[in-house]
Input
Amino acid sequence: MSTGPQKYPGASTAQWWQSRWGGDPMEVNTIVWHSTEGTGLPDYAGGSAAPNFTALPDFDAQRLTWYQHFDFDISSRALVNKPGGVETNTLNVCQVEIVGTCDPAAHGKWTARHLYTPELPDWALRDLAAFAKWAHDEHGVPLTGDVVFKAYPASYGANGVRMGAAKWNAFRGHCGHQHVPENDHGDPGLLPMAAILARAAETAPAAP
Output
């Protein structure tokens, strides 16, 4: 069922969770973006709540270090899924966690260097755009997303931008955890998604 390369070039598999937790094969058409609300690489409770990818900032090198936990076209585990509702983790979504925070309160008090999603440095935008471009070029994930990213904490819970079942089932492109039904998280807050996708589209060919 899965087509295209399953490993993102250069990504580390030092935290590979697919062999432990399996996952369902999919043909990904959507990227769901998260923020970890921390400064280090999480272990995701032994992989039980892991995404497909984690982007960890290397501030000295001014780049993102990528960790891959599941194949691109295998479902991961970072979303809530409630019985009797829509599918979330398994509905053709690849999930990416950005190590950092969307919370202005955390941003204001943390002393360690960290990414704050509303104010990402240019090198982080560059590397997130590179991933979006790869997902587009190799898997046809649209460089679009007709959703509004809201700033945290207004993005938490019933936030006015969370999708209903019909829109979620039909959605293609890029969205955040704050948009996924059956979930209440507000990450990744005011992620500059439009800027990331515009940068990715500068050299991306038309979707197949």
